[in-house]
Amino acid sequence: MTPLKVSFRVNQRDVEVVTVAHRTLLDLLRDDLRLTGTKECCAEGECGACTVLIDGEPVCSCLILAVEAAGQEIVTIEGLERDGEPSALQRAFVSAGAVQCGFCIPGMIMSAHHLLMTTPSPTRAEIQEGLAGNLCRCGGYSRIIEAVERAAKAQR
Amino acid sequence: MSGPTIGESYERVGGRERVTGSQRYAADLSFDRVLHVKLVHLPTGRAAIRRIDTHRAEAIPGVACVLTANDLPQPVARFGPAFADRPILATGETKFFGEPVAAVAAETHDAAEAAAALVEVEFDELPAVLSIEQALDPKSPLVQDPSLRPGDAGADTNVLRQWTFGWGEAPVSAHLVLEREYWFPMVTHFAIEPHVFVALPTDTGVTIVTPTQHPFVLQRVVAAALGWPLAKVRIVAPDPGGAFGGKGWPKFEPLVAVLALRLGRPVRLVLTLEETFQAARRTSARIRARTAFDSEGHILSQSLSTDFLIGAYADIGVRVVSKASYAACGPYRTPHAQVVARALLSHTTPSTAFRGFGTPQASWAVESQLTEAARTLGIDSIEIRRRNLARKGEAFIPNDTPADGDWAAALNRAEKALAWNAPLPPNRGRGVALGLKSSSTASASLAIVRLHHDGSVTILSATSDMGQGARTVLAQIASAELGVTPDRITVVMGDTALVPFDSSTSASRSTVFMGNAVTKACAHIRRQIRTLAAAAFNADEASIDVVPGSVTIGDREAVSYLDVLHAAWGPPRGELIGVGEERGGGFRADHPLGGRPEFWEFMCTAVEVEVDRETGMVDVTRLVLASDVGKALNPRQVEAQDEGAAVMGLGHSFMEELLLDSRGCIRNLGALDYRIPTIQDIPRELHSILIENEDGPGPYGAKGAGEGGILGIGAAIGAAVSHATGVYLRELPMTPERIWRALRQTDPPAPPASE
Lengths: 156, 755
Hints:
The complex is a heterodimer.
Chain A: E1 4-10, E2 13-19, H1 25-32, E3 51-54, E4 57-60, E5 73-75, H2 88-95, H3 105-118, H4 124-130, H5 142-155
Chain B: H1 15-20, E1 35-40, E2 47-53, H2 55-58, E3 63-68, E4 78-79, E5 86-87, E6 93-94, E7 102-106, H3 109-118, E8 120-125, H4 132-136, E9 159-167, E10 176-184, E11 196-202, E12 205-209, H5 215-226, E13 233-236, H6 253-263, E14 267-270, H7 273-277, E15 284-293, E16 299-309, H8 317-326, E17 336-344, H9 359-377, H10 381-388, H11 407-417, E18 428-438, E19 445-451, E20 457-461, H12 470-482, E21 489-492, H13 510-536, E22 544-547, E23 550-553, E24 559-560, H14 561-569, E25 576-582, E26 600-611, E27 618-628, H15 635-654, E28 685-691, H16 708-711, H17 713-725, H18 736-744
Parallel strand pairs in B: 1-14, 12-13, 16-17, 20-21, 27-28
Antiparallel strand pairs in B: 1-7, 2-6, 2-8, 3-7, 4-5, 9-17, 10-15, 11-12, 11-14, 15-16, 18-26, 19-20, 19-25, 22-23, 23-24, 26-27
Helix pairs in contact in B: 5-6, 9-10, 9-17, 12-13, 13-14, 15-17
């Protein structure tokens, strides 16, 4: 397998890595860059645990090859904090009691972050649509909806 | 100093780490010189292994080892929490789809994967036992070799165990006898975190790193499999990313231990989600119920014949069957009960603990019977339950833990919250079901609480914080008991080299058992403070009052714990160690479960649905959960547990079912084909109600919670669907297709389209 050099920006930092063509962005983030906040569950784009933003769009990083992300701007869960402080959305997930085991939460927050960027005051139906690709098995989802609503209110 | 009061929804300890991505789950840990393991399994279920050729696999660069059963000391060691029946690797034949026949360890995951694909296995497919009917057919093959069941009269059958529970005299006559058969599907846990197993050889033995719910069970089983003392096996259990019973009982830990010890290097096995489907599941069941009522709807007799299709190895499946069947008649006064329960072996994924532990299966039948009887007799579905419900203190199961809550209160509150009697538009219906689960019986929890010389506190507890928020609750308890703010408390969990024994994180037992252990450990610290204060201040112990956070000596001004420590010890030196232990009622040899349940977990589920008669789709318009929790130490966490359990139960109610082909392969293997509820599948409205009478055996009167929501959800929805449509379904899940087909039996065919 020929090694390939790939560069992109991750969480506002320029990154250059040598990888192989079949390597997923998820594996590269987790194993090479040690950004382990992004999680792997189904590895087929159904659960959303590996959601990151590429050029502002939420994608399942298990379905993207690392080389496809070349030259793009990637944001992972580790990139949402500002000055070492969690964002309003992240804080809302804790205060609303939306976090249980927490394994789905990074992906859930990335999808919710994108939703609030594009739809600052989402309706309940819009939140459900925006997070439909993120599975949670611990909770009843209603507290996740509440967290997004709280964050939307906080940013207004 | 003042901690948050008990009963306050304190923010989740570990919440910040979980929203920022800094929480380290097992797969996020890195280990020096680690080898990556990939399992080799066959594309079929039961098969005779003729030959395994590992040469091509071993030739892949970076492969350290390709292990098969032939490489292990013979006979291959077997393990299991209840029966030592499961070999470390398949030996002779595979007994279920996904049972590994070999394991590859390599320098990289890619190399391990490539090599695993090159392991050549010659095998012959063998006829398999895949259903309850097949398991009971005397002509079927035996799943287990009878030599594994010495002294067992049933060893030449696929009935691993059978129980008969019951009491009372059969009634002479009855006004109504309902005889029905119910089916509950195989479902999988689908924790979002797939299983991870790491083993590291150490100077003193072996360390296993895995997100297990029960570190000390794992230590016992691995030590037994290796023939080692417990002290040589260390279990490190990072917080699981969801478990639900699926991470309770050992799976591949003995295998990774053997690999690490052979290779002298750490090894790491991360399952794919598909492999987790093949590693653990809930047992399916057929329940034949015969229930007799008088004209007023009083239960006269409950006869249940239950068959649970457990898997190829016992795991903890036998306990699931016995425990659920023992209390299967539910929270009702039942003058005559007879429950015959069988655990049937099959060539399928070993079934294990799964939230509710067999009770959702039994409740599906018993609660559906009550609903149908109520409607047949012209009695309201809530009223028939009210008439039969055991009152507090009533021994509804003779000689056992009596009803320990005001259960009717939950029913009344749910009735009101759902607006039970409000008029309904067409195609809407309402249903109710009660759920009663036998909690933890004989078991033990130990806790150590360390009061450091700056007044901060470390709690050592083997409870697993798997999403329920155990750290938060234990910190709240210590905060209240010692008067230390929670931000000065750290809860250390999940390392058998650090924390004292705990039986398990299961059966909703931790708040009660571990909570009491922490409470007692804090009391132990207060007793030591009193002794120290008496010596330091030259006072009589009887004149000293130690309350959370402060000490009063006679009529002097109160001092802090730290003042006492400093007066007694001078400059910082040492700490106080409190030890607490909770064993509940303890072991009872004469009890069918080895001990009485410490409390009953009780939940009333009431639901309103809208059925689309054209498509069979069901929309849950309102869901009410009313649980009897004694005291909610952290109400938000309790509610979140109840809601999560109920939404999980929407899965087996509407969509979840593992489907097998004729060879025993799972047809819907993975997230694409096996659907669990998404955020779009939840009830339009959801109300959680907590009944708090402080009448539980746990701290401040708490009972366990967290499983209640999944107990009755299927029957409540079934009742609502039949209320809306007149059609009774007795097989879960109630998929749109099943509902549609059932409706086609009653609805006139739609008129042909005009064009």
